[in-house]
Design a protein that fits this description.
Helices cover 40% and strands 13% of the residues. It contains 13 helices and 13 strands. Bound molecules: pyridoxal-5'-phosphate.
Length: 378
């Protein structure tokens, strides 16, 4: 049996939606983008959503919209795009520790790393679970810092009563491995009129209104470039996929949760592994299902055995960002700086997780894992 790490949940509805756009003649930023933005903003429970070509673009624009340069605190245990977006926005990444169990940034460590140069905090909602946002927002308010939520890996996750991406400026990814996909793509969510205006303008060359809106004013040829912007727009072909995927997001997340509960039940208590934990009062949406291995298990051997069985297990993320060559060279980061992040990076394993998994496949993952554990434990 072959079980990949992830498979997008798509059928004819997505392809029909794409064909409709192709036949319409309006392929770039247009009516499907607008529809997708309205739908997404409503789902997250904020005033605005700005559709973009990636989450990395959303993170950059969210930072730049604040108009303040300085240090931004983020976890080292994340995908490198989180830190890259800080560097490419002219700010300095300052890494903080995570909690081993939740894999998310530790609010106590955030506060320890605040200096006179700190301007913001970037919590990363790892793999489907929202960070401790009440505590993070309290720290931000106390120190006058802005917050940009990297919610690339969490679409629909809840922290108590709030949805990830609704506490501050939210940034989401629609890469194929995410809770929903448009192939490539991202979106920024906000209640702040100024952030919305900045992001909408900067995504389209710094021109202050979209092509679609411009068609409807008196002088359609007039383009007011008020900033030196980028081309970070989403096209209508992808937005049409987004519109369809949005209609399925709750169903897809519920299926992920159901599969995670099944795996938890089958794997809990096995010697050599620990299953993921869901924080009390939160809703984990399992963009990734990650376990940790005990010291006696050789992870490289374990992963090789899983792959031999056709189970696409992997690791997210090793090394942690502070040990990536660029960050070692540019910021002098070194091994030992973040022991919890480093230990997690060395012990974590991502198992296949996607909505269409069936019980036979889940059972195969479990039996393969048991065999791989036996073959890799010292
Ligand atoms: C935590 C995190 N941030 C940012 C990104 C970047 O997303 P995108 O590929 O849409 O730019 C990813 C993508 O995998 C991610 O996992």
């Amino acid at each position: 049996m072959k079980i990949p790490l992830c498979v997008p949940f798509m059928d004819n509805v997505e392809s029909d939606a794409v064909c409709e756009v192709l036949k319409s003649g309006w392929l770039a930023h247009g009516p499907r983008c607008k529809e997708f933005e309205e739908q997404f903003a409503k789902y997250i429970g904020v005033k605005y959503a700005v559709a973009l070509n990636s989450c990395t673009s959303a993170l950059q624009l969210a930072i730049m919209a604040q108009g303040r340069r300085g240090e931004i605190i983020l976890p080292s245990f994340t995908f490198v795009a989180s830190a890259n977006s800080i560097v490419t926005s002219g700010c300095k990444p300052v890494f903080a520790e995570i909690e081993y169990e939740t894999r998310n940034i530790d609010p106590i460590d955030i506060e320890k790393r605040i200096t006179k140069d700190t301007v913001g905090i970037m919590p990363v909602h790892y793999g489907g679970q929202v960070c401790r946002m009440d505590e993070i927002m309290e720290i931000a308010d106390k120190h006058g810092l802005f917050v940009v939520e990297d919610s690339a890996e969490t679409i629909g996750g809840l922290y108590n009563t709030g949805v990830g991406g609704s506490f501050a400026t939210g940034c989401f990814s629609f890469y194929p491995t995410k809770n929903m996909t448009t192939g490539e793509g991202g979106i920024l969510t906000t209640n702040d009129d100024k952030v919305k205006e900045f992001a909408s303008t900067m995504r389209g060359h710094g021109i202050s209104s979209s092509t679609w809106a411009r068609e409807r004013v008196e002088k359609p040829w007039f383009r007011a470039a008020v900033m030196a912007g980028f081309n970070y727009r989403m096209c209508d072909i992808l937005a049409a996929v987004g519109v369809v995927q949005m209609k399925k997001i709750d169903e897809m997340n519920e299926l992920r949760r159901k599969h995670a509960q099944y795996l938890n039940k089958e794997l809990e208590g096995l010697d050599g592994i620990t299953v993921p934990s869901e924080m009390l009062g939160c809703k984990h949406v399992y963009q990734m299902y990650t376990i940790t291995l005990g010291e006696a298990v050789d992870r490289t051997r374990f992963l090789a055995l899983m792959r031999e069985k056709g189970v696409g297990a992997s690791v997210h993320f090793d090394p942690p960002v502070h040990l990536q060559p660029y960050y070692v060279d540019a910021y002098g980061c070194k091994k030992g700086d973040f022991p919890v992040s480093e230990r997690l990076a060395e012990t974590i394993v991502t198992l296949p997780m996607y909505p269409a998994l069936n019980v036979e496949e889940l059972d195969y993952i479990v039996s393969s894992l048991k065999d791989a554990l036996r073959g890799s434990s010292g």
